Amino acid sequence: MPYADLPLDQLRGHLSESVEPADFDAFWAGTLSEARAHGEPPAFTRVDSGLSLIETYDVRFPGFKGQPIAGWLHLPAGTTQPLPCVVQYIGYGGGRGLAHENTLWAAAGFATLVMDTRGQGSHVSVGVTPDPEGSGPAYAGVMTRGIGDPHTYYYRRLVTDAVRAVDAARAHPLVDPARIAVAGASQGGGLTIAAAALAGDVAAALPDVPFLCDFPRATWIVDKAPYDEIVHYGATHRDQAGTIARTLSYVDGVHFAARATAPALFSVALMDPTCPPSTVYAAYNAWAGSKQVREYRFNGHEGGGAFHTSEQLSWLSERLCRG
């Protein structure tokens, strides 16, 4: 696909026009306070993944409104001391997968908590967590579920789940709560940014070609899924443009990034038609903590692939495994 975004000199300095809601902090503080009021401890049940060098546990923890969320916890076999942990979020349409999947970080010596994605898990990988909340009219997919109000919007629930996944990881005795990293690509990258802002004292963040960033630009220039779900909905509900923009502003990664202080390693693909580089740079440029970005000039939404994974392994090991 040819390069179709801003000229490079503008791209690297791009700032979003997303308007931050005046009650953004209060909205999320109230949402998380309500979720954490459901104090049930997470449950970890040993399962046989078929992998002899990795121990895997089925995880159940309370998410939004205490609703049960599934996950996997992977540990290097024979772990006896608390380890740094990567909390991993999955891309759009995917779930936690099967017990033997998503074990790279555990193979590298980290604990790994892989969060299932409520109401998804039927496209990229298997999921088991339902989304019990009701919704008004919505376009196919999850992007417009409950979009008429930020309190009913789907991503309010999913972001809350992402934060509670960090809480769940911290509760396990073989996880060092001071060395938690958050990571994910696409939708998982957007959740990574949100969790880094909201979960408190996250040690590192790895947002990979992140989705859910700079909605005003993304919904204007992207003509494919998942952003186009919002466009199709808006084309029919012509009188709701302001309502849509207001709801999306509460989950825009740009505003979360402005509150994220952990060291971050971003990736951006300059020919990405799904999460255009300008939307990624909008979040990167807003990031409040120390940050680095790796550009992949000729790549689309696959980003840096295995090349970037190698970068992440080296970068994260340096920050969480020294000494």
Automatic annotation (TrEMBL):
Coiled-coil parts of chain: none
Family matches, as InterPro entries: AB_hydrolase_fold, AXE1_dom, CE7
Domain Acetyl xylan esterase: 1-318
One matching Pfam family: AXE1
Enzyme class: hydrolase
Enzyme Commission number(s): 3.1.1.41, 3.1.1.72
Example GO molecular function: acetylxylan esterase activity
GO biological process, one term: polysaccharide metabolic process
Keywords of this entry: Hydrolase
Active site: 186, 272, 301
Repressor recorded as keyword: no
Binding-site positions, substrate: 92
PANTHER family: CEPHALOSPORIN-C DEACETYLASE (PTHR40111:SF1)
Protein name: Cephalosporin-C deacetylase
